[in-house]
Design goal:
The protein contains five helices and two strands. By secondary structure, it is mainly alpha-helical. It has one domain. It has a two-stranded antiparallel sheet. Helix 1 runs antiparallel to helix 4 and helix 4 packs antiparallel against helix 5. The longest helix has 27 residues. It is globular and about 45 Å long. The chain starts with a strand and ends with a helix. Keywords: Membrane, Transmembrane, Transmembrane helix.
Length: 111
């Protein structure tokens, strides 16, 4: 079993992975902010055109978004940081668990 590193794939895949990391970090920050403050930013509500039923559920939507963002972030880590294969596989399993927790949070949480 070898190591995974940034130098393995071509530069296009590295760029795509870095974009995914930046977007997932944004998802985590935005989701935590919405869940903790218990309200959506006004500009985001206008841009996203949230219906009234969803505007009343910021903890549900923010928490689910933060968990999905964390899952995406962990899923990309083994490709960007050199690490042994078992550690990368363990991070992938944790990312799958976070994705399932994010979906479960969104489906089961009722505010």
């Amino acid at each position: 079993m070898g190591r995974v590193s940034v130098t393995d794939p071509d530069p296009l895949w590295i760029a795509v992975r870095l974009v995914v990391v930046v977007l997932s970090l944004g998802m985590v920050v935005f989701g935590v902010r919405v869940a903790v403050s218990r309200r959506f930013p006004v500009a985001w509500v206008r841009a996203a055109r949230l219906p009234a039923s969803q505007r009343s559920q910021p903890v549900r939507i923010g928490g689910g978004q933060a968990l999905i963002g964390a899952s995406l972030l962990l899923q990309q880590a083994p490709f960007l940081v050199p690490m042994p294969y078992p550690v990368g596989a363990a991070l992938f399993v944790v990312a799958l668990l976070l994705a399932a927790a994010g979906v479960g949070w969104f489906v089961l949480r009722r505010d």
